[in-house]
């Protein structure tokens, strides 16, 4: 199934199941509540063209993300020594649910933004409660997949004059640079796991104003989805609606010296899942 959420004529958000050029209106419900085609009986059909979409899920208890899950991205970040050796443990951080943004939603450029950047990533949607899973059992908790853009502020707090840096300040500046409202565009759809036979072999690309910036494949992830889920559930319980963003490949703006500017249009696309487009807007 390909599930999306759209704004109806009265402004309310409905769940839809897309088939080609048609969307079946499933009313007011969570995408996780759809069992299958048996739920489609009597659903109103609406044309997919022209629908204004919301993020395909908003009820997200936790939005977790991997840092440094592609070696070439680690290298372009100036950490070639780290990329060269064995990498034993995933580095997991979080973004708040207020970061979630809709397809075609405006990414706000805020007063504290100095160098705003893009990161196209595979989003894994969790469908069931999971704790202490083995790698062999981990994929059973995956509901589906989407596209996420981990918008990142690379130079948070850099405008503060005469700042006395503590040892941990650079890490927390990096972390808080991930937390801005609207900094996690998601969508346009959730594609259920049964329609993606191998999520570890999908082309992943990103364009900025029509210019190709990122061009890779999920087979280059260091930590696979089951390894990541096993590592996370050894620490905390995953819940239905949780999202894991699986890290970004090389080609980010910081490595190129290119930061996002008002009016920039970003297109992140993952093979078999869809294309997510957003525009940057100045928000003062």
Describe the structure.
By secondary structure, this protein is mostly beta strands. It has helices at residues 71-76, 80-84, 135-138, 169-176, 225-233, 253-256, and strands at residues 2-7, 13-19, 22-25, 44-47, 53-54, 63-67, 91-95, 100-101, 106-109, 116-117, 120-126, 142-149, 152-153, 184-192, 203-208, 211-217, 243-245, 265-270, 274-282. It has two domains: 2-53; 55-282, Alpha-Beta Complex (Fumarylacetoacetate hydrolase, domain 2), CATH 3.90.850.10. The strands form three sheets. Strands 1, 2, 3, 4, 5, 6, 7, 8, 11, 12, 14 and 17 form a twelve-stranded mixed sheet that branches. The chain is globular.
Segments where pLDDT lies below 50 for 5+ residues?
Answer: none
* Global mean pLDDT: 96
- Measured as a percent range, the helix fraction is 10-25%
Write the CATH architecture name of the largest domain.
Alpha-Beta Complex
Instruction: Give me the CATH superfamily of the largest domain.
Output: Fumarylacetoacetase-like, C-terminal domain
| Tally of individual helices | 6
Give, in order, the helices and strands: EEEEEEHHEEEEEHEEHEEEHEHEE
**How many discrete structural domains?**
2
Q: Give the N-terminus to C-terminus distance in angstroms.
A: 40 Å
Number of strands: 19
> Using only CA atoms, what is the Rg?
19 Å
* Share of β-strand residues: 25-35%
CATH class of the largest domain equals: Alpha Beta
Main sheet attributes: strand count, strand direction, barrel closure: 12 strands, mixed
Class per helix and strand makeup: mainly beta
CATH topology of the largest domain: Fumarylacetoacetate hydrolase, domain 2
General form: globular
């Amino acid at each position: 199934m390909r599930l999306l959420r759209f704004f109806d004529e009265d402004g309310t958000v409905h769940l839809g199941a897309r088939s080609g050029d048609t969307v079946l209106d499933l009313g007011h419900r969570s995408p996780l509540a759809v069992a299958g085609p048996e739920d489609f009986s009597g659903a109103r059909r609406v044309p997919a063209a022209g629908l204004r979409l919301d993020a395909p899920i908003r009820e997200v208890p936790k939005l977790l993300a991997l840092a440094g899950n592609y070696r070439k991205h680690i290298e372009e970040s100036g950490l070639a020594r780290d990329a060269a050796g064995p990498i034993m443990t995933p580095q997991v951080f979080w973004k708040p649910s207020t970061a979630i943004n809709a397809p075609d939603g405006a990414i706000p450029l805020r007063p504290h933004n100095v160098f705003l950047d893009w990161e196209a990533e595979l989003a894994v949607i969790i469908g069931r409660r999971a704790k202490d899973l083995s790698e062999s059992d981990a994929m059973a908790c995956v509901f589906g997949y989407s596209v996420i853009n981990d918008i990142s502020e690379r130079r948070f707090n850099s405008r503060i004059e005469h700042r006395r840096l503590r040892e941990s300040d650079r890490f927390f500046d990096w972390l808080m640079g991930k937390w801005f409202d609207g900094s996690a565009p998601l969508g346009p759809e959730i594609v259920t796991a049964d329609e993606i036979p191998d999520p570890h072999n999908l082309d992943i690309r990103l364009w900025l104003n029509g210019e190709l910036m990122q061009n890779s494949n999920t087979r280059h992830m260091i930590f696979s989805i089951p390894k990541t889920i096993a590592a996370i559930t050894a620490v905390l319980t995953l819940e239905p609606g949780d999202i894991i963003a699986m890290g970004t490949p090389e080609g980010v703006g910081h490595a190129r010296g290119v930061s996002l500017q008002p009016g920039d249009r970003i297109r992140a696309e993952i093979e078999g899942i869809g294309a997510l487009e957003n525009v940057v807007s100045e928000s003062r």
